[in-house]
Write a structure and sequence with these properties.
40% of the residues lie in helices and 14% in strands. The protein is of the alpha/beta class. Helix 1 (28-40) crosses helix 2 (56-64). The chain has helices at 28-40, 56-64, 86-100, 118-130, 144-151, 175-181, 195-203, 206-215, 219-227, 242-251, 258-267, and strands at residues 2-3, 10-11, 16-17, 45-47, 74-79, 105-110, 134-140, 160-163, 186-189, 233-236. The mean pLDDT is 94. Helix 5 links the parallel strand 7 (134-140) and strand 8. The chain contains 11 helices and 10 strands. The protein has one domain (10-194, 232-253): NADP-dependent oxidoreductase domain (TIM Barrel), CATH 3.20.20. The strands form 2 sheets. An 8-stranded parallel beta sheet has the order 3-4-5-6-7-8-9-10, covered by helices on one side. Strands 1-2 form a two-stranded antiparallel ribbon. The radius of gyration is 18 Å and the shape is globular.
Length: 280
């Protein structure tokens, strides 16, 4: 377990992502079952966004969580950058709350940065927080320079959600160390990689296959265990299949030793210089 400083809740180091979920009516019952399976196995952090299916993902989450104690869940959603200030943010959040069938979110993120001044976004975050409509706020897809600019305005940012997996390690050069210095947990989206080519590179890699065999698990579980290895990253893989969710839960128990980490390092080395932030 990893303590995520949102509302003094303990949340698992693996949550459940919902990108592209809720958009296919034929998959709806399976996706709801997947989210409920996760909750029942302790994956109580669910990540969504108003962008995902233009609200369809939030609606799916709202339906899935109805049988459960809301206070035991950590709901994360995101606001479009063009809705990131004033009445537009208030309206966006109200719509999200209605779709999620709740009266507050635990964490509200600026999905990515565009033209709206950060001062305006933060001012509205704080106002909505004071009103009890959100417990904490943060950002997504912010590079190190963006985080430094944000810190000069406010130190209340709870997290930064970015792309992070074995093939996308650019944040380890400067962004991740910067966040670690401030004890700010990082949320990792797409921790299993993206696209058929990258997944094939993972699942067919002989070293990863050998490590997985040693742990009697899948390569995907190794990918998740690697992502959360330091104890300050929360991974939010998409969770649309109940069996995949159960496998994700088991990844919490996998501890990679130094030899295994060094083997992975040789295949997927950490960055030696600054690279532009990778986003999806």
């Amino acid at each position: 377990m990893s303590l995520f400083p949102l509302s003094l809740k303990k949340v698992p180091a693996i949550g459940m992502g919902t990108w592209y979920m809720g958009e296919d009516p034929d998959k709806r019952s399976q996706e709801i079952k997947a989210l409920q399976t996760g909750i029942e196995h302790g994956l109580t952090l669910i990540d969504t966004a108003e962008m995902y299916g233009e609200g369809l993902s939030e609606e799916l989450v709202g339906e899935a969580i109805k049988p459960y104690d809301r206070s035991q869940l950590t709901l994360v959603t995101k606001v479009y950058p063009w809705n990131a200030s004033g009445d537009k943010m208030r309206l966006s959040l109200e719509h999200s709350l209605r779709r999620l069938q709740t009266d507050y979110v635990d964490l509200y993120l600026l999905h990515w940065r565009e033209d709206t001044p950060l001062e305006e976004t933060i001012e509205m975050f704080e106002q909505l927080k004071a009103e009890g409509k959100l417990r904490a706020w943060g950002v997504s897809n912010f590079d190190a320079a963006d985080m430094k600019e944000l810190e000069a305005i406010s130190t209340n940012c709870a997290t930064n959600q970015v792309l992070y997996n074995m093939s996308n390690r650019g944040i380890e050069f400067d962004l991740l160390p910067w966040m670690r210095e401030r004890q700010m947990p990082l949320m990792a989206y797409t921790p299993l990689g993206h696209g058929d080519t990258l997944k094939a590179n993972f699942t067919k890699n002989p070293i990863l296959l050998e490590i997985a065999a040693q742990h009697k698990c899948s390569v995907y579980q190794i990918l998740l265990a690697w992502c959360i290895r330091a104890g300050d990253v929360i991974a939010v893989p998409k969770s649309g299949n109940p069996e995949h969710v159960k496998a994700n839960v088991k990844a919490l128990e996998i501890k990679l030793n130094d030899e295994e980490l060094n083997l992975i390092e040789a295949i997927f080395p950490r960055p030696l210089q600054k690279t532009p932030l990778e986003v999806l």
